[in-house]
User: Fold these one by one.
Assistant:
Number 1:
Amino acid sequence: MADVLEIEGLTKHFPGHAALEDLTLGIAEGEFFSLLGPSGCGKTTTLRLIAGFETPTRGDIRLRGKSQNSLRPYERNVSTVFQSYALFPHLTVRENIEFGLRYRRKGNGAALVRQSIEMLELGGKEMRKPDELSGGEKQRVALARSLVIEPDVLLLDEPLSALDPNLRKQVRSELKALQRRVGITFVFITHDQEEALSMSDRIALLNHGRLEQLGTPHELYLAPRSRFAAAFLGPVNWIDHVGLRPEATRLLARPTEGLHSVAATIESSTFLGNCVHVEARTSGGTLVVAEVSRLNGKWQAGQPIHICWDPGDEIRLPPA
Amino acid sequence: MKRVREICLAPAALTLITLFATPVAILVVYTLLTRGAYGGVEHPYTLDNWGRLFDPLYLSILARSFSVAAVSTGLCLLLGFPLALFIARAGRRKNLYLSLVMLPFWTSLLVRTYAWMFLLRDTGLINTALQATGLIREPLPLLYNWWAVILGLVYGYLPFMVLPLFATLERMDPSLLEAAADLGSRPFDTLWRVILPLSAPGMRAGAILVFIPCLGAYLTPDLMGGGKTILIGTVIQNQFTNARDWPFGAALSLALMAAVMLLLWLQVRRKGETLL
């Protein structure tokens, strides 16, 4: 399928620092695409460039094949869900949702508003002002306001970070389901690797303004191409230049056929409820964290052990 | 704790009581007395002074004062809003522009009013210059009329409109403006649908700060109006000086105060919020 959004050589320099350097990627129609990275990696700058709030230093952004560089934010058919939601405090929920309709009316505006109020479960709250809403409700109003104008691409700027942690996980799956239902391309900005892994079709990992790796959640987690990518997607142990995720380890009394192994001594074990984190030092002196089931036995400091793993679970970085 | 609070509040309370509440109480008593032959007040007690307020002459002066204050406030709002918006978006120059707005306060209003008169009078700078260039033969009547009064009031009280407006506009979350543009709203639409409604508290505060002093203004109407545009402030001043009718002057002042309080009270009640 043709890419709805194409970014080519996109570069943004602010006085004194380069926020984004030569980013090139394509986002497919209907895709849930995440821009992941630590703060200052350029993900928010990318979003602001796509929305038109910033002007690129170099490079091009094409929406459905049409260059957006000369277009003002109000001329671009993209819409943003802001981190703070940016709901208009003087307007009711309904007025907020209706705000953009008059500029991009397609078909029956009233029906679209009704539909999105229903879809985002805001029924009965239409007449409330934003400061009378909970965090989750505000977020749904922001989503409805952006979706109702049927943008080609919906940009989401860390929309879950303002929610309390219990709500966050629930909203993740709701957001994913919503995206599937409306079929609109989502570009989701986050610094939380769990969010990116759980929701995305593809992830672009950014670091210091550069694209570190682009791929599916599986590819990024299981086959990272750099130490940074491996570490950013989750905890990783490095044993002789081979990366090993804590949950891929097995602690056995002796080496076993078909598994790679290294001899080690247990230093400590931490009970975490659903699993146990065991810290062991290899004969080579490397500290390895293993995440094992509490059902697999008891682990005591000083106990000699073999750390074993399936060769298929190894993370091998391409030669630098 | 409570004792400490009382001690700290005492000076302010004492000042307000002696310098505000007491004079008002004295005024109330004066309104009920008879005028003295050479000023001051004499017995017997009477309600005549309050009755005279309803004389159509004074009612029309009061109405004129209200319209002058309203027009001045409206013009301050029209001129002040773009200025406040400009300053709020001036970035690093913000403080410079703000201090320029405050600069006139470094000299007294009296001096500045006289400066305007030197500019506007028949032999003033503007008329002399226009005559010298041959654009006009007779001097334009720039001073001593209704519009001169309005000009003086707008000039004098514009900063009181700009400052609260600036405070509101500066606090406005810039992501709201981005959200509006993001939803397809052009800059003018955003001004109309987002910025103006959200700056209502600043407009209200500015309007109150301009309207009230304009309503009771004495200096500007007297100097720039040349006594031709009689406003309530001038009438009150006259009662205490030339007319030597203190009781009636007191009644007029209290009536003006009551009218202002009523307006403020309606404003607060309608909005259900605090005044400023």
Number 2:
Amino acid sequence: MEAFLQRIASRLGRDVRTSVERPKWKHAPQHTVFQGYSQDELLDELKKQCTRIHTTLVETTAGRLVDAIDDVIAAHGGGPIVVANDERYEQFGLSSLFTREDVHVWDHTLGRANIEAAERANIGITFSDITLAESGTVVLLNNRDQGRTISFLPKTYVAIIPRSTIVPRMTQAARTIRERGHVPSCINFITGPSNSADIEMNLVVGVHGPVKATYIVITDR
Amino acid sequence: MNVTLFVTCLVDLFHVNVGKATVELLERLGCTIHFPEGQTCCGQPAYNSGYVKEAKEAMKHMIRTFEHAEYIVTPSGSCATMFKEYPHIFQGDGEWEERAQRLADKTYELTQFIVDVLKVEDVGARLEGKATYHTSCHMTRLLGVKDAPFTLLQHVKGLEVVPLPNAHNCCGFGGTFSVKMGPISEQMVDEKIQCIEQVEADYLIGADCGCLMNIGGRIERKGKPIRVMHIAEVLNCR
Amino acid sequence: MALKINMGEFHERVEKGIHNTFMRGAVAGAQERLRTRRLEAAEELGNWEEWRALGEEIRQHTLENLDYYLMQLSENVKKRGGHVFFAQTAEEANDYICRVVASKQAKKIVKSKSMVTEEIHMNAALEKLGCEVIETDLGEYILQVDDHDPPSHIVAPALHKNKEQIRDVFKEKLAYTKTEKPEELALHARHMLRHEYMTADVGITGCNFAIAESGSITLVTNEGNADLVTALPKTQITVMGMERIVPTFEEMEVLVSLLTRSAVGQKLTSYITVLTGPREEGEVDGPEEFHLVIVDNGRSDILGTEFQSVLQCIRCAACVNVCPVYRHIGGHSYGSIYSGPIGAVLSPLLGGYDDYKELPYASTLCAACTEACPVKIPLHELLLKHRQTIVEREGKAPISEKLAMKAFGLGAASSLLYKLGSKIAPTAVNPFTTNDRISKGPGPLKAWTDIREFPAPEKERFRDWLKQRGNE
């Protein structure tokens, strides 16, 4: 390593640097996007963007969330389903999800069986930790109770989005993640379903990951 | 207004009519034309081929030749761009960098000069027919003159100007590229001509003799009924 | 596949490209679509130039302090339980990767798209070890199945192939029975690859941006393949060109925004994934072991030179998508895995002038590339610098050209010589002139007149006319 870095430094005509102050950048256009927007305005932007990323957006209230999820599950052909072991399900009155027979709740003590359940699942459901209005992106800070594969292996991916998680763009998410301190081993920024244009530039939706994506926005939380 | 004309080597030797039109047009707009006899070439052919030393000799000569001008005007976006590049090329070369900067600061491409300095948009020209305009790369991207030619053409009576499809693509001239990479250049100019034909234009208008020699030469070889004109010639039509 | 794609001499490759009608249609179509999308995405922001300026600023700062940020990255990866290897050369990188793979007794490797692994010829090294290496990016997968056809575009590697060709390859190699519909082809690849992800021993990825402050790597895809490559196998190896690094998350997000907008006109691609170290305590997916291989392979030789700015590149291919030369000759003509303007600048630097001396001339210097670059690399100026180097330092220019340019220097720097030369020009070419036109020119004019008419020099020069008229 020393020789490698030494070589870089000498090419740059100086000694190896052991400390560098991150500069204050002269330009900061990223902060002007949706500056000063209210949560409602951000939600409007998110809705607009979803029409461009092959993603269905459903609005509901906390009180009607259970029904909304049931509808989405039914619309996508039902289970099997895989969900994270996330206390927010209970906070949002979704305990009933856990007792459904066709639902696998991620349990890290079961090891690889979780991945196999995800592979078999028709639908994977997680909460969005941060939601980006500009790009229509849900941010998942994964952990041992929320496996990475929940959002990748099933055919359909469903994100539950409390309205309060919506921010203008990736800028705010990046800052939040930096300020949180410990960075999770895997952070996903997911924007709609998997797709590819590798064959004659034709867009094919659903390549390796989910074929369909649905966002359920809880408008009063 | 005192205008010192940098006519460019291509116009001096091959497209004398473009030079004549430029002079008559500017005089009609109230300018007095000066022409330093010592002028040669901006140095681009050598510079773009990697012969910087040789190019710099030509450039120094041009700096000396045009030093006393008030406004330097040239009927070529590409050659104007080259003058504008001089300070960059002489960077760190104290005296020459400064002299190059002074030269660059007073250099204008013809249409840019008419619209931005003379503040004229209608030069009173008339030409019947349908035309399309070739936006040359250096003039648009490097010199940044995008609107002036269109502004002037809009006011030419009798002339319908239609947009050229894929106008952003280079015509394939590129100086020595046109001979070094002949087969590629041929494909590029052929696509350009297809686009011109697509809009059924009677005239192809441009502001750079290099591009026009390339497109025009190919049009002629293929026997297409399209007339190639420099914008100075169009603006000088009454 | 290494940097070099061995396909004959430059001019032969160009001929082949020009005559490949399907490829040219595909490239022109892709260029138009990608260019339009990029412009729309930029337009939408309203202050694109400011974004570019920020992108440039970040990249320049990072390169100027590259040693520091790499050290910081390395320390933070290690803190999170990852391994870091600095590879000066392609051989060192491959040796290390092979050692890791051998120590796991790995047989099957899944891989997501990575230019640097192509550059160092990694797949061949692993195959020699007896491993099966499976590309998972759909475009790369298609090329691999088709006997390792080289990529022709940095972002859309299989751009030169049509769906019928892909169908036939799939039929021959993958027992495919359906039609040439892209959906059906993609679905087949999905099924084939699902199995591979689940059973692979090692996953190998490239790296769009490493983040020094957190010791993370960022992967950008639309397919989600990189996520499966990193979630399922027990060992993950990430290979990065040493310049693909940013200080913190905040710079990463700016560059990702520039990348996805410039590459495909999307605000963000479907999957942006930031991975930090191996899986944590209790996690069941993600790798148990994480190795980061940081590759120099000629990059440090570019640092501190007039070409340093080329290392700002974020591999978006915006320059490729606007290049009028690439448009007609396609990616394979460049003879390098890096095609288009960025390839014409980078390939001679990484692979030497012997193999790539024509590339800097395969440009009209139209500057469309420079205008498109989201991190403001002055690509056309770097092509010029290459030409200058070839003339001055490498002495590789033809003698006839040198003489001509010498004469130019003399002529253009002296009013007298210029006047004399221009005066005798019409007489000199007189034997070749008909109706003021030259159709079959002598010497250097021949290459011009093979394609187009050339105007004969006018008998009365402009300056003579002006003089007669009485102007000063």
